[in-house]
Specification:
The complex is a heterodimer of chains A (about 300) and B (about 425). Chain A contains 13 helices and two strands, in the order ααααβαβαααααααα. Chain A has helices spanning about 5-30, 40-60, 60-85, 90-110, 135-140, 145-160, 165-175, 175-180, 185-210, 225-235, 240-260, 265-285, 290-295, and strands at about 125, 140. Chain A is globular. By secondary structure, chain B is an alpha/beta fold. Helices cover about 40% and strands about 20% of the residues of chain B. Chain B contains 13 helices and 17 strands. In chain B, the strands form four sheets. Chain B has a seven-stranded mixed β-sheet with strand order 1-3-2-4-5-6-12, sandwiched between helices. In chain B, helix 2 (about 50-65) crosses helix 9. The radius of gyration of chain B is 23 Å and the shape is globular. The chains are: A mainly alpha (about 300), B alpha/beta (about 425).
Chain lengths: ~300, ~425
C-alpha cells in the first residue's frame, strides 16, 4: 500500500489510467447504441500524431487537441457509414479502421519526429491539492485528466438518468422496438459512434500532448486494444470504466516497483493483461446466469446491423 | 454457433497479426544513375526516433553526399530468417541492389542465409558476430560515452541514487549500465545505480512508468535504453530530476533537465563501408575478416544531448565547481576531467590511453571480475558481460535475450479472448 500512496507513483497511475479511461467512456456509448468499433487503436494513434503535428504547426495546444478530437470523429464516421448506412460487418470495418489509422499516423507525424512541443502543463487545484494523501495524487494533473473526472459521472448520469440515455440503450437493446416507437435508430447510432471516435481522438491527444509529450511512430504499442476489453470489464457502465481503467493503470505502473521484490519481469509484464482477462472470465461466468445478464450484460443488439 | 464464430475470430486474429508483422516497402532516390545501389533492412519504423531513425538519417546523409550512390530501404521487417530472406529477395531481384545492410542483431541468421543465396552481392550486418566471404560486420558502441555520462551523474546527484530504465538484460545493455555506474562511482563513491527492466526496445508507456517508479524510490539521475524521449520528459516533469538522452538528440525535450547523453553517427560508418566498396577495397570475397567496431576515437559516437554540445551549458558551472582527485591528473574539476578523458579515448580501441573497464572491478557479490591494472577484452565486454559492477543494486533476470517478443503474441491472444468473452456475455435474442 505504501507504494500506491507515494505521490509520484500515484500520479503515474492516474496519468496511465486516464489514457484508458477516456476512449473507454466513448466506446461504451458506441457499444450501448449497438455498434462495435474495433478501430479504437487506429483512431487513438492517428489523433495522437495529428494533434501533435497540428500543435507543432500552429504552436497552439488547443487547436491541436480539437483537431485530434475532430480527426477521431471523422474516422469514426467512416466506420459509421460502412456499418450503419451500408450494414456491413462491424468487426471487419473496425479492424480496417485500425490499420488505416496506424498508416495515417505515420503520414501525419512524419515531419514532427524529433521535434519538441511544450505539452499541457500540470495544474495544482487549489484547496483540493492540500488534501492529505489523495491531494497530490489526484489534483496535480493536466486539464484533460480533470476533464476525465468530470466525464465519468456526467456520462453515467446521461446514460442512466436521462431520456437521451434511455434512447441510446433502447437502440442498443432492441432497435426494432425503438424504431416502431418512432426513434431514429440510425441517427442515434451515428451520433454515438462519432462520440466514441471523438473520445478516442481525445485519448490520442492526451497521449501525445499530456501524458507523454512527443510523437514517434507506433507509440501506443497496441494499448488501444485494451479499451475493447475494458468496455467488457466495465460492464458497459461509465462507473465501471473508472474501475477497469484504474485497475489496469495500477498494474501497468506498479509492475516496476514489484521488480524490486524479485518477481520475474516477464510475469510482471503480463499482470495487467492477466488481471483484465481474469475479470473477463469472471464476468463471463457470472453473466451466464440469465437473470444477471438481463441487468448488466452486453447490449443485445451489439454488432448486429439494423435493417428497417 | 458460438463455436463457429469463435473460430472465425481466431482466424481474424491470425490474419490481423500477419498484417501487423509484415514489412512495408519504401524507395528513395529513384535516379538509377549510380554505380552502387545500397539496400537497407530496418527492424522498426523510420519514425521511431531511436535505432531505426538513426540508421535512416545516416543512410540519407551518405546518399546525399555521393552521386554514385542510390539507396532504398524496407522498414519494420520481422527478425525471423524467412522475413529477412524475403526482404533481401525484393532488394536484390526487384530493386537490383549491390549491397545490403541488415540493421538489427536479430537479422543475423537471415543475413547469412541470404548471403549464401546471393554470393555475388555484398552484405553488412550491424551488431552481430557471424561473417562470411560476402558478409561483414559493423557496430558503433556507447560504453565510453556512458562512462562520461556517469561522471556527470555521480557529480551532480543530490540523493546519491541513480536510476536506469533498461530494455533487455543482454550484454550490450549491461555493459552500458556498468560503464555508467563506473563513471558515477569515480565521481562519487557512494553513488548507486538502480535498474528497472521494461523488456522492450520501444515502449514509451512502459518507460514512463518505470522512470516514475525509480523517482518514487528517490532516484534523481536517469539514463535509459529505449527508443523514445519519454524518460527525458519524465525528468523534465519532475523537479530536481535529471536525465541523459539516448541515441538521438533529445535535449530539446528537456532543455533544463538533460545533462548530456549518447549520440551516434552511423553516416561515418556507412561512408567508410560504401566508399571502400566503391573503390573495390571490399568485394564479395574478402569480407570474412571485416568487423568494424567503432567508438569515440573514430567519431562513430559522440557525447551530448545535442550534436556539438557535450554538456548542456546549464550544467557547466556546477560541474566546474566540483573537484575530484585523480591518480593521474591530481586535483581536477569534473568538467575538466571529462574533457581529459575525451582526449584520452580519442584513438582506436586498442590504442586509447584510458578505458573505463580497467581493473580492479568487482561484481555485485564482491568477486573481482577484472584484475587490477588489466583492461577488459572485447569478448569480455561484448559477449560474457552478464554481471553488474558492485555499485549497481538491480538484478539481472535470466533467460530473456531480447530476441523473442512474447508480449506481442500475448496481445493477439488477448484480443481474441476479449472478443470471445464479449461474444459469450451477449444475450441470446
Amino acid at each position: 500500500m505504501a507504494e500506491i500512496i507515494n505521490p509520484v507513483l500515484g500520479q503515474s497511475i492516474v496519468a496511465a489510467a486516464t489514457f484508458f479511461l477516456i476512449p473507454t467512456l466513448g466506446e461504451i456509448y458506441t457499444e450501448r447504441s449497438g455498434i462495435l468499433n474495433l478501430g479504437i487503436e487506429g483512431m487513438i494513434i492517428a489523433s495522437a500524431a495529428g494533434s501533435y503535428a497540428i500543435t507543432f504547426l500552429t504552436q497552439n495546444l488547443w487547436v491541436g487537441i480539437i483537431f485530434g478530437i475532430f480527426l477521431g470523429g471523422i474516422l469514426a464516421t467512416i466506420h459509421a457509414v460502412i456499418t450503419i448506412t451500408f450494414n456491413r460487418n462491424q468487426i471487419v470495418s473496425g479492424i480496417g479502421l485500425t490499420i488505416f489509422g496506424t498508416g495515417l499516423s505515420g503520414f501525419l507525424g512524419r515531419d514532427v519526429i524529433g521535434k519538441a512541443v511544450n505539452g499541457l502543463d500540470k495544474i495544482e487545484l487549489p484547496i483540493l491539492y492540500d488534501l492529505p494523501v489523495i491531494g497530490p495524487i489526484f489534483f496535480n494533473h493536466t486539464i484533460l485528466v480533470y476533464l476525465s473526472y468530470i466525464l465519468v459521472p456526467v456520462l453515467w448520469f446521461i446514460l442512466y438518468k436521462t431520456r437521451v440515455g434511455i434512447l441510446i440503450r433502447t437502440v442498443g437493446e432492441n432497435p426494432s422496438a425503438a424504431f416502431n416507437q418512432g426513434v431514429n435508430v440510425r441517427l442515434i447510432r451515428y451520433l454515438c459512434t462519432i462520440f466514441g471516435g471523438m473520445c478516442a481522438g481525445l485519448g490520442g491527444a492526451y497521449l501525445s500532448l499530456s501524458w507523454l509529450n512527443f510523437w514517434s511512430e507506433g507509440m501506443t504499442n497496441g494499448k488501444g486494444w485494451i479499451v475493447i476489453a475494458l468496455v467488457v470489464v466495465s460492464l458497459w457502465n461509465p462507473l465501471g470504466a473508472l474501475f477497469g481503467s484504474y485497475l489496469f493503470g495500477s498494474f501497468d505502473v506498479l509492475q516496476f516497483s514489484f521488480q524490486q521484490i524479485g518477481i520475474d519481469t516477464s510475469i510482471l509484464k503480463m499482470m495487467p493483461y492477466l488481471s483484465t482477462m481474469t475479470f473477463l472470465a469472471l464476468w463471463a461466468i457470472i453473466l451466464s446466469q440469465q437473470k444477471v445478464k438481463s441487468i448488466v450484460g452486453a447490449p443485445t443488439a451489439l454488432a448486429t446491423p439494423f435493417e428497417d | 454457433m458460438l463455436k463457429k464464430t469463435f473460430i472465425k475470430y481466431i482466424f481474424l486474429g491470425i490474419i490481423f497479426g500477419g498484417i501487423l508483422f509484415s514489412g512495408t516497402m519504401n524507395t528513395r532516390g529513384n535516379t538509377s544513375t549510380g554505380d552502387i545501389k545500397a539496400g537497407f533492412i530496418y527492424v522498426g519504423p523510420i519514425g521511431d526516433y531511436g535505432w531505426t531513425n538513426a540508421h535512416h538519417l545516416g543512410q540519407e546523409m551518405v546518399a546525399a553526399e555521393y552521386d554514385w550512390l542510390t539507396t532504398v530501404y524496407i522498414e519494420t521487417v520481422a527478425e525471423d530468417t524467412a522475413s529477412v530472406v524475403q526482404a533481401v529477395d525484393t532488394l536484390v531481384s526487384v530493386e537490383q541492389c549491390d549491397v545490403i545492410f541488415t540493421t538489427s542483431f536479430g537479422f543475423m541468421d537471415g543475413t547469412l542465409e541470404a548471403a549464401t543465396k546471393y554470393p555475388d552481392k555484398l552484405f553488412f550486418h550491424c551488431s552481430g558476430f557471424k561473417r562470411a566471404p560476402n558478409v561483414g560486420n559493423y557496430f558503433a558502441d556507447f560504453y565510453q560515452v556512458y562512462y562520461l555520462n556517469g561522471l556527470m551523474a555521480g557529480a551532480l546527484t543530490e540523493t546519491d541514487k541513480l536510476g536506469y530504465v533498461g530494455a533487455f538484460p543482454i550484454p550490450e545493455v549491461i555493459r552500458h549500465i556498468n560503464a555508467w555506474a563506473l563513471g558515477a562511482k569515480e565521481a562519487n563513491p557512494s553513488a548507486t545505480v538502480d535498474v528497472r527492466w521494461i523488456n522492450s526496445w520501444y515502449s514509451p508507456t512502459a518507460a514512463t512508468s518505470a522512470a516514475n517508479a525509480l523517482i518514487a524510490d528517490g532516484v534523481d539521475m536517469l539514463a535509459f535504453t529505449e527508443d523514445s524521449p519519454t524518460v527525458v520528459q519524465v525528468a523534465e516533469d519532475n523537479d530536481d530530476v535529471y536525465a541523459f538522452s539516448h541515441y538521438s538528440p533529445m535535449q530539446s525535450y528537456g532543455e533544463t533537465s538533460t545533462i548530456s547523453g549518447q549520440l551516434v553517427h552511423w553516416e561515418i560508418m556507412y561512408d567508410e563501408i560504401l566508399t571502400k566498396i566503391h573503390d573495390d577495397t571490399y568485394t564479395n570475397t574478402n569480407l570474412e575478416n571485416v568487423d568494424l567496431l567503432w567508438f569515440l576515437g573514430e567519431g562513430a559516437v559522440e557525447v551530448g544531448g545535442e550534436f556539438d554540445e557535450p554538456i548542456n551549458t546549464v550544467f557547466e558551472a556546477d560541474l566546474k565547481a566540483i573537484n575530484l582527485t585523480d591518480p593521474v591528473h591530481g586535483s581536477i574539476s569534473v568538467y575538466d576531467l571529462i574533457f581529459e578523458r575525451l582526449d584520452e579515448m580519442n584513438d582506436t580501441w586498442a590504442n586509447v590511453d584510458f578505458d573505463p573497464f580497467t581493473g580492479p572491478i568487482s561484481a555485485q557479490n564482491g568477486t573481482v571480475m577484472i584484475a587490477s591494472g588489466v583492461r577488459a577484452s572485447i569478448p569480455e565486454l561484448f559477449s560474457t558481460m552478464t554481471w553488474f559492477v558492485d555499485n549497481v543494486i538491480g538484478t539481472i533476470p535470466a533467460g530473456d535475450d531480447g530476441d523473442s517478443t512474447p508480449i506481442d503474441l500475448v496481445m493477439v491472444l488477448f484480443g481474441v479472448l476479449a472478443l470471445g468473452a464479449f461474444q459469450f456475455t451477449r444475450r441470446k435474442k
